[in-house]
Amino acid sequence: MKEIVIISGKGGTGKTSITASFAVLGGKDVVLADCDVDAADMHILMQPEIAKQEDFYSGELAVINQEICTQCGKCFDVCRFDAIDVKDGIHSVNELSCEGCGYCARVCPVDAITNIPLNVGKWFISNTRFNQPLIHAKLGVGADNSGKLVAHVKNVAKEIADEYEREIVLVDGSPGVGCPVVSSLSGAHFVVLVTEPTVSGLHDLKRVYELVNKFHIPAACIINKADLNPDKTQEIKDFLQKEKIIHLTDLPYNETFTKAMTECKTIVEFDNGEISDKLKNTWEKIREIVRN
Amino acid sequence: MKIAIASGKGGTGKTTLSTNLASFLSENHKVILTDLDVEEPNSGLFLEKKLIKKYDKFKMIPEWNKTNCSLCGNCQEVCNYHAVIKIVDMIMVFPELCHSCYACSELCPTGSLPMIEKKMGELKHYKTGKFDFIESRLEIGEEQAVPLIKQSIKFVDEKFDTDYIKIFDSPPGTSCPVIEATKDADFVILITEPTPFGFNDLVLAIETMQELKKDFGVVINRYGLGNNDIEEYCKKHNINILAKIPNSKQIAELYSKGELLYNKIPEVKHELEKIVLHLTSNSL
Distance between CA A3 and CA A288 in Å, rounded? Predict the structure, then answer.
């Protein structure tokens, strides 16, 4: 089983649309994992039927029992997250600021503070309309620990792939270079970087590649909207060559991505032209690289 | 006044709006723009700027000093993040897991885990023609954006008076970095695009802002593309649509080169005026 992760650094470069098309092309060989748990969109194109859903608990939240609390203020003194609010002499926990370190509970002289497990979201095993498993999640509003939820989604996807002998786990990653991205990269066999020829596209590609490089994962790149700025596209190609990143393909700037999305379809279903052909060839290329 | 510019989905125009709005507002106001998308800071790419000062930013992590350590294992027990572990006769620290809560250090009976500084990123203070610009940048490999965002907001609070309009370009998503970047804002602008992804993620962002009890409005970027779901949703839920930036290849091209839009495209300037009018009528 091989794990292919699709990321971009910058958001909005077409990552999810491209991943969804690859999933359709991969058919029965693929288990799909939507690891952009902050803003999960894969289900919009895949319209899956949810087969199983579970709450995800990660981290803790301090709760002060006012009946026991003597308002001594020790918790306030030790908290490094400004998570203890004091109003009219009454101490309470600011749920958004509390990072669940548990320090306050340990120093409370009357044991008035307990840590409760935090429900940070839900995760799902679903069946896409292409009859393949999709593991996805919904992070609770303002929740912490998206990295752990990403790791969980990926692990479930891998277990399913192992059990049902699917060749590929296809992972749609999140933007940025922080904890959810680190989680989606850990253990991956191959990374596909989706970028666009804009000043931010190139800047973010370089940063996310630096991270990929730390993990020593082989990487390849798709330049989306390549004709938008030919000079920038050339700059990206020079960067790819210098870093020995495989250049998979260039996709044109047009509204097929949006039109397909608006009809809740993947690009390869919606379009019979150039973009679909390029995506098919690219998917074949990726399969071949991963196989070897 | 503090204005945060956020979005659920990435790539919907946060940076475009932040840089153009900051520049436009600076014609008549004192403005400070801060890029809080510390994982991928992009605002600076669109501004002609001069560096005033660079600051290294640190987080505090414990460092094992074995001299007096009795290997009691209390540090491992009190760390809720599994960032400190005892292996045989050693204490190991995993800095990337550490939240800097100080519990292991301060509760160590022999004082064997003093807290030391570890660089997590850089904050750069720039001047552009008319306004100040702060860019914070997370070191690659550093996983937690929140501490750097927190320190950057503190820097701006301390350095710039309340008579400044403070604009914060926030990270995408709805999780902890976004909460940190928006929770002190007086007003949040959510920018989105009229596509199913844009709509889905906007609703998540709206729910987040409602949870935070924030005053917010919506800007639709690439207006004319996709469908009308966002407008219908906002109408139904009484949410203000502040502006609609048209979908245009010319805008995409200017953006790709790192150029500001409002001085070249009158429609964009007109939409910025609408946003400013809304902000002014509400307290600016």
Answer: 14
In whole angstroms, how far apart are CA A269 and each of A95, A279, A284? 45, 11, 17
Question: pLDDT tens-digit profile of B73-128?
Answer: 999 999 999 999 999 999 999 998 899 999 999 999 999 999 999 999 999 999 99
Check if CATH label 3.30.70.2740 holds for domain A59-119. no
Q: Which residues contact A196 (CB under 8 A, 6 or more apart)?
A: A10, A13, A14, A223, A224, A225, A228, B256
Does pTM top 0.90 for this prediction? yes
Taking a C-beta distance cutoff of 8 angstroms, is the pair B260, B46 a contact? yes
Amino acid at A244: K
Judge if B85 and B217 occupy the same domain. Answer: no
CA B92, chain centre distance (Å) = 32
- Supply angle C-alpha B9, B18, B212, rounded to 5: 60
Of the candidates B30, B31, B37, B32, the residue with the CA atom closest to the CA atom of residue B13: B37
Answer whether B208 touches A (CB < 8 Å).
yes
Distance from CA of B249 to the nearest CA of A (A): 8
A253 min Cα distance to partner chain B (Å): 9
Residues B103 and B136 in one domain: no
Name the 3-class secondary structure at A265. Answer: coil
- Domain range for B143 is 2-57+121-281
Question: What per-residue confidence (pLDDT) applies to B175?
Answer: 87
Q: Which two tokens stand for residue A100?
A: 């669940």
Residue ranges in chain B whose pLDDT is less than 70: 282-284
Contact A145, A8 (CB under 8 A): no
Contacts of B59 in chain A (CB under 8 A): none
Q: What is the pLDDT of residues B5-26, one digit of tens each?
A: 999 999 999 999 999 999 999 9
Identify the CATH class of A2-47+128-291: alpha beta
User: B265 and B228, same structural domain?
Assistant: yes
Nearest by CB to B45, from A12, A199, A208: name it. Answer: A199
Does B58 lie at the interface with A, CB-CB under 8 angstroms? no
Task: Indicate which CATH number applies to the domain containing B91.
Answer: 3.30.70.20
CA distances from residue B151 to A189, B57, B163 in whole angstroms, order as listed: 36, 8, 21
- Asked if residues B170 and A11 have their Cβ atoms less than 8 Å apart, the reply is no
Q: B188 has which bridge partners?
A: B4, B216
